[in-house]
Amino acid sequence: MGLYLCGATVQAPPHVGHIRSGVAFDVVRRWLSAQGYDVTFVRNVTDIDDKIIHNAGHDDVPYWVVAFKNERAFTQAYAALGCLAPTAEPRATGHIPEMIDMMQEIIDTNHGYAQAGDVYFDVRSDASYGSLSGQKIDDMLAASDAVAQGKRDPRDFAMWKAAKADEPHWETPWGPGRPGWHIECSAMARKYLGDSFDIHGGGIDLIFPHHENEIAQSRAAGDSFAQYWMHNAWVTTAGEKMSKSLGNSLLVSEVLKRIPPIHLRYYLAGSHYRSMLEFSDAAVQEAGIGFERVSGFITRAMEMLKLSTVEIDSDSRAEKFDAEMNNDFGVPKAIAVIHEVVRAANSKLAENDTEGVRAALVSVVSMLDVLGMNPLDVQWEQEQSSNQDVIGQLVQVAIDQRADARARKDFEAADAIRDELDRIGIALEDTKEGVRFSIRAPQSKESH
Ligand SMILES: [Zn+2]
User: Are 60 and 1 in contact (CB under 8 A)?
Assistant: First the structure.
């Protein structure tokens, strides 16, 4: 099965809004794999465009310094959030010959034309142009990707742009230039997935013009292209589409200093991919509390059963969970099923129903695992293990001091220690086996 996702334009490091599609389609890919499909997942890297060239000029470095640096930042962000690496992650600049071949085919079939070093797609030549976005050509605005002079129709879009002075460029039969954005996806999808493939994904803002133009190019070149389209909605802040202008605090690397990565994944993947998602630290923290209810059950169940690992068993997943996932990847409802199982299992814990707890534990871990949110997965351990020991020892010092205070009946001091830990995000729980602590994202003082 072929899955193509329009990936990052690597002009800047990713903020939370950039990373949502990566997380959403990682869940799609994992679910399809779990259904037995052999998924070839391609996510491209747009490593040449106006903004990359602009930013490179600003820093007085070659375009590829900007592109590689930000590509690495994206790779780190995807990895931190538990996204499996794509089967292929092709860069635009590595596929110029494929783009030239495709443009030649488009010109040969009279769907494209070269003009002063630019190569345009002739939208009037394509009767179905606009069908993905449900628009008629006459209602469309002019394509803003190139100057209108030399175009047959202002709505014709540039597949290739003639080189301007001092810009990076590649040689073509039509002169030196560089790719317009759309042609790379048509050329790379064909190269890695063939003339026809199953699913094409991307953000909802790519439907027009980008995906419309991809379809036009690929069909003009004789490919039947994607059979299904999936578009994820935006992440918003204060009701607006998240953008760079909102500052660095929304960069994934910054958010992950405040929020555990698995909480951010749970939050991003936990809403339906077609639903808008309003981001705030408070919203992620609230989601994190929900996630900790599930992971807290896993911890207690493993303690009760004296287990150090849990084997994944796909047959143990709740039927309802699978049904929700098979209904257009209904992750929110699938997660609600996990919570139902945990609620029921918590009573089994209280009743000391070992077999009931064991069955629920395997089921819960297996359901989380297929979503890429298994807290026992080495993915999440790596994130924390180096700090975890030190933190554990520090918290133990405080726990011992609290126990001493209690022993001398200084309850005020004991409570103060607990409150102070709570303030920095460490919750204590008195259990039969002793004091247990858990770490959540810290709360600001104002919230008290
Ligand atoms: Zn694309």
Answer: no
Helix (H, G, I), strand (E, B) or coil at 40: strand
pLDDT tens digits along 197-227: 999 999 999 999 999 999 999 999 999 999 9
Ligand 1 mean position, distance from CA 277 (Å): 22
Q: Are strands 277-278 and 235-237 parallel, antiparallel or unpaired?
A: parallel
CB 190 within 8 Å of CB 218? yes
Q: Write out the residues surrounding ion ligand 1, Cβ under 5 A.
A: 6, 185
CA of 289 from ligand 1 middle (Å) equals 36
Distance, CA 182 to ligand 1 centroid (Å)? 6
Per-residue tokens: 352: 């000391």
Query: Looking at the predicted structure, is the pLDDT value of residue 448 above 50?
Result: no
Q: How far does residue 141's CA lie from ligand 1's centre (Å)?
A: 20
Residue 141: pLDDT band (50, 70, 90) is: confident
Domains of the chain: 2-249 (3.40.50.620), 280-376 (1.20.120), 384-448 (no CATH)
Least Cα distance to 272 among 197, 340, 335, 359 occurs for: 335
324 CA distance to ligand 1 middle (Å): 29
* 174 CB-near residues (< 8 Å, 6+ apart): 114, 117, 118, 119, 160, 162
Whether 226 contacts 4, CB under 8 Å: yes
pLDDT at 426: 87
271-330 pLDDT, tens digit per residue, is 999 999 999 999 999 999 999 999 999 999 999 999 999 999 999 999 999 999 999 999
pLDDT digits (tens, 9 = 90+) for 374-383: 999 999 975 5
Best CA proximity match to 405, nearest among 428, 439, 423: 428
Supply the pTM of this predicted model: 0.86
CA of 370 to the centre of ligand 1 (A): 27
Q: Tell me if residue 113 falls in helix, strand or coil.
A: strand
Centre of ligand 1 from the C-alpha of residue 185, in Å: 5
pLDDT digits over 381-394, tens only? 755 545 556 777 88
Structure tokens given for 428: 């204590």
Residue 209, both tokens: 């013009």
Ligand 1 geometric centre to CA of 89 (Å): 12
Are residues 174 and 114 in contact, defined by beta-carbon separation less than 8 angstroms?
yes
